[in-house]
Amino acid sequence: MSDNIKTVAEHLVDFLQRREVKHVFGLCGHTNIAVLAALSKSPIDFITVRHEQIASHAADAYARVTGKASVVLSHLSPGLLIVQQELQMLH
Length: 91
Known about the structure:
alpha/beta; Rossmann fold; three-stranded parallel β-sheet; 52% helix; 12% strand; globular
């Protein structure tokens, strides 16, 4: 495999950078470790929280206060349903 082939996680982070995302709120987990590694090489700040519900509310507050896009990063778990439910209520 060539060294200049990007991973899906790197493409995702590049997409977020093109959209001028400055912060990503979420939890660390084994299912999103590749995205976290790609974020660590970018200027985007990853703000870790202890619960998916907090990540959803933090991203919502950031978007409301700044008027900018915000992102929630979860991992595959029942917590993903919590994020989905919270974002539906906040929308």
